Amino acid sequence: MLIYMLATAMTVAMLIATVFGLHQEAQRIRVKATTKRFEGFGPHKPYRHY
Question: Region 31-45: what's the mean pLDDT?
Answer without folding.
Answer: 67
